[in-house]
Amino acid sequence: MSETTVSPAELDLTPAELAPFIQHTKIDPDATRDQMIAHAREAVTHGFNAAMVPASWLPLVVAELKGTGVEVASALDFPTVGVMTSAGKAAEAAEIARLGADQLDIGVQVGWLKSGRYDEFREDIAGVVRASGLPVKVMLELPLLTDAEKEAAVELAMEAGASFLKNASSGQIETANPASVRYLVDRAREGVRVKASGSIKSYRQGLELLRAGASLLGTSAGPAIITDTGDASTVSY
């Protein structure tokens, strides 16, 4: 995964230079085979960090991206988070890894956290980490949590082996913002990084998130961002 060697606050990147930080997302339920191939090729053309696709399309996209240097990411318990059983998540995580994904984003059991079921919340994440063997990015859904719950969620996710902390799963939960990124960066242990997600639509917004300390940007507006062609107004992921 791409990393920068300068202080985030000092980043002064052109639109095109944001490409290695972008995880190019396509999770439309009606996406066709041709559209998924085009999505993968677009990730290569622009030099994005990864193509994020549903698990059902992994065989196609993994084959398309083989040898290109662009990684393949997928997600589970998403876009509606917290609906899968822990056993189901672990099994799906293992299958996603078997199909060739390089990275995995996961939803969390927000209701368990809010009910004080901390051990189960942690183990739900840890089971995915163990089963997949992949870098796991945990969608914490920060706006749904109290201050105390946010602190607990961050610590439990890291205890479970999360490689990345994410502010939210989508723009329906939170528009990615520098304050949420800084909150996570300030609490991340050594080796744990931050991915910003949620209605990232423009070059300026992406740059501000990177300056706040994000290492990755999850968005379906990658081409508009790196060409600085304005807001992609329909983007929610």
From TrEMBL:
<keyword id="KW-0704">Schiff base</keyword>
<dbReference type="GO" id="GO:0042558">
    <property type="term" value="P:pteridine-containing compound metabolic process"/>
</dbReference>
<dbReference type="GO" id="GO:0009264">
    <property type="term" value="P:deoxyribonucleotide catabolic process"/>
</dbReference>
<keyword id="KW-0963">Cytoplasm</keyword>
<dbReference type="InterPro" id="IPR011343">
    <property type="entry name" value="DeoC"/>
</dbReference>
<dbReference type="GO" id="GO:0016052">
    <property type="term" value="P:carbohydrate catabolic process"/>
</dbReference>
<dbReference type="GO" id="GO:0004139">
    <property type="term" value="F:deoxyribose-phosphate aldolase activity"/>
</dbReference>
<dbReference type="InterPro" id="IPR002915">
    <property type="entry name" value="DeoC/FbaB/LacD_aldolase"/>
</dbReference>
<protein>
    <recommendedName>
        <fullName>Deoxyribose-phosphate aldolase</fullName>
        <ecNumber>4.1.2.4</ecNumber>
    </recommendedName>
</protein>
<dbReference type="GO" id="GO:0005737">
    <property type="term" value="C:cytoplasm"/>
</dbReference>
<dbReference type="InterPro" id="IPR000489">
    <property type="entry name" value="Pterin-binding_dom"/>
</dbReference>
<dbReference type="InterPro" id="IPR013785">
    <property type="entry name" value="Aldolase_TIM"/>
</dbReference>
<feature type="domain" description="Pterin-binding">
    <location>
        <begin position="59"/>
        <end position="237"/>
    </location>
</feature>
